[in-house]
Amino acid sequence: MVFIIPSILTILTAPLILWIVPSSIEDAKWLNEHDRAVAYERVRFNQTGTGSTKYKLPQVWEALWDPKTWIMVCTSILLNAGANVTGTVSPVPRSRTLAADSIVLMDRLDSSVVF
Length: 115
Prior knowledge:
This protein is mostly helical. The protein contains five helices and no strands. The protein has helices at residues 4-20, 33-46, 57-65, 67-88, 100-114. The longest helix has 22 residues, at 67-88. The radius of gyration is 25 Å and the shape is flat.
């Protein structure tokens, strides 16, 4: 129930947000000419660009050589790998009907699915 309510809210509000929030400064209908000029100046000062849809090879190489990109990728992988291992791999309860070898094999099978 804790995850269902936020999920429903997200599903209901996502199309509304996609419809309301503009994708560029030019599409923002509520901006007048002065506000639009201020927005363009802010984008120019931050050197972020106005949203080109074309990929340029030097930009791809720049992103691949940037240490911040690799820190973000490694952090994401390590955090998700740790969460998956602790959530999926669990010790098999010992029972009188299973031999010790079977328990080890079942645990190894469960661990191999994760990786």
